[in-house]
Amino acid sequence: MFEQVSTPLQSNTSNSQKKSNEVALILIRHGESLWNEKNLFTGCVDVPLTKKGVEEAIEAGKRISNIPVDMIYTSALIRAQMTAMLAMTQHRRRKVPIIIHNESEQARAWSEVFSEDTKKQSIPVIAAWQLNERMYGELQGLNKQETADRYGKEKVHEWRRSYDIPPPDGESLEMCAERAVAYFKDQIEPQLLSGKNVMIAAHGNSLRSIIMHLDKLTSQEVISLELSTGIPMLYIFKEGKFIRRGSPVAPTEAGVYAYTRRLALYRQKLDEMLH
Fold first, then answer.
1. What is the Cα–Cα distance from 198 to 8, expressed in whole angstroms?
2. What does pTM read for this prediction?
3. What are phi and psi of 238, to 5 degrees?
């Protein structure tokens, strides 16, 4: 027996009803990029997806095809934006993602959609630099093995895996987390609170930062967190709390966002024992 996640499906649902429901937060690291394939430090360099990356994005879309999506957030980089767009080609609702341009008053006016019927058939996409990958500074574009040979394996490992030590002219994970989490709190959490289901397509380090916030990880725990390209993670937001559901494993409704009542009761008892 499955208990489905309750989500607001009707546009005319009142705010009070929406707030009492569970809403979905989907996180997707972009599919394999050209520089992932070549084992280069990518950071904020704008590089495209590989053929494998395109396939990963499409497969991610199949895994979330039954989860309602009301808004999409991506970074300003093409690999994240393409991942979001390709994933939505697989969605059962067949809504069209439309990029909302907020960079200037003129851009906002030019990209305005005036038809209410069109709005109902579309999903707003907001691209934000705050969700960009961590800036790797002087390491960007360098082969990871060659970088280790030049600077030493220990130094490169320190730059990649420490929380607060940045590479030359780059960002530490802590610096990346400051901008990504602040944006998440200011811009994305209010959408979840209003009852909207949100998908974020971004990068390994910006998503690690957000997961650190959602799961209340320590700086030591987050540095060991690995995210695979093109594998979606599902969270349920209910009563101001985030509940991690893991990765949807299949395009079927039950496999995507349902869970057994027995498992839910087990988790509840476990939580009571821990408290």
1. 12
2. 0.81
3. -145, 130
Q: Which residue numbers are catalytic?
A: 30, 133
Nearest Cα to Cα of residue 200 among 177, 165, 232, 175: 232
DSSP 74-110: E-SSHHHHHHHHHHHTT-TT-PEEEE---SSHHHHHH
C-alpha Rg value of the chain to the nearest Å: 19
Q: Which amino acid is at 124?
A: P
SS3 232: strand
39 among the known binding-site residues?
no
Name the phi and psi angles at 260, rounded to 5.
-75, 145
Widest Cα–Cα separation across the chain: 60
Q: Is 179 annotated as a binding residue?
A: no
**Residue 214 counted as an annotated binding residue:** no
Pairing of strands 96-99, 232-238: unpaired
Is 159 exposed, middle or buried, given 0-12, 13-18 or 19+ CB atoms closer than 10 A? Answer: buried
CA atoms of 40 and 38, how far apart (whole Å): 6
Q: Give 112-151 pLDDT, tens digit per residue.
A: 888 888 888 999 999 999 999 999 999 999 998 889 888 9
5 Cβ contact partners less than 8 Å away, ≥ 6 residues apart: 22, 24, 236, 257, 258
Residue 216, annotated as binding a ligand: no
Encode pLDDT of 214-266 as tens digits. Answer: 999 888 888 888 888 998 999 999 988 998 887 765 433 333 333 334 444 54
Structure tokens of 205? 């380090």
